[in-house]
Design goal:
The chain is 44% helix and 22% strand. It is α+β, with helices and mostly antiparallel strands. A two-stranded antiparallel ribbon has the order 1-2. Strand 3 and strand 4 form a beta hairpin. It is globular and about 65 Å long.
Length: 193
C-alpha cells in the first residue's frame, strides 16, 4: 500500500455549482476586507475539516458514488490541492456515504462557510489594528457551539490480500488539541491533517 503523508499533496479537481463558487468568492472578499488573505485551497481545507468533524452517517454501505455534475446544470471545474491524509479521509467518507468529494465541498460551502467566517473573524488578528466589526463576529460566533481546534488522522491496514480475497480496515480519528502536550502536537503536525 502507498504511504500517505500530510506534507505531500494530492492534485485533483472538483466540480462546483456556479452559485457555490460565487458564495466562496464572497467569503474570500469578507476575509480580505478584514485583513485575512486566504487562498481557495486553504478555505477548502478548513471547510473539509469542519465537514468531516460534523458529518455523521449511520446507514449501510452505499451502492456507489452519486452523479453530481449532470448535464444541463451550471457547474465549474476548479483545482483541488489537499494533503494526502485529508484526501484519504475524504475518500473514505465518500465511499461510506455515496457522496462525491465535489458534492461534499458544495455542502461544506453552503453549511460551514458562515461558521468558518465567524470563527476566524471573531478573534482579533495579531499585528493588525483591531477590526471594527470584531464584536459583531464575536457575537455571532458566541451563539454557536464552540469547537476546539483539532487534527484528523487516517489509517488503513490490510489484513488479508491473496488469491482468496481482500480484507482491510480504514479508520479516521479526530483528535482535539485540548490537553495535548507540545510534543504530541509536534508529532501530529507531521502525521495528521
Amino acid at each position: 500500500m502507498k504511504y500517505i503523508h500530510p506534507l505531500r499533496h494530492r492534485k485533483t479537481s472538483v466540480s462546483l455549482p456556479h452559485a457555490s463558487y460565487r458564495r466562496l468568492c464572497a467569503g474570500r472578499k469578507i476575509f480580505a476586507r478584514n485583513g485575512l488573505r486566504y487562498s481557495e485551497q486553504e478555505i477548502y481545507r478548513r471547510l473539509f475539516k469542519l465537514l468531516l468533524k460534523n458529518w455523521r452517517g449511520r446507514g449501510l454501505k452505499s451502492n456507489g458514488l452519486r452523479r453530481y455534475n449532470s448535464a444541463g446544470m451550471d457547474f465549474e471545474v476548479h483545482p483541488l490541492y489537499v494533503n494526502q491524509v485529508l484526501y484519504a479521509a475524504l475518500w473514505q467518507r465518500a465511499l461510506h456515504s455515496g457522496e462525491s468529494i465535489s458534492r461534499m465541498l458544495d455542502l461544506a460551502i453552503r453549511v460551514y462557510l458562515p461558521q468558518l467566517l465567524e470563527s476566524l473573524l471573531s478573534v482579533p488578528a495579531p499585528g493588525l489594528t483591531l477590526r471594527r466589526n470584531t464584536h459583531y463576529w464575536m457575537k455571532r460566533y458566541g451563539r454557536r457551539k464552540q469547537q476546539p481546534d483539532f487534527f484528523i488522522n487516517y489509517q488503513c491496514q490490510t489484513r488479508k490480500n491473496d488469491q482468496t480475497g481482500l480484507e482491510y480496515s480504514q479508520s479516521m480519528q479526530i483528535i482535539t488539541k485540548i490537553g495535548l502536550s507540545p510534543m504530541q502536537i509536534w508529532h501530529l503536525l507531521h502525521t495528521a491533517a
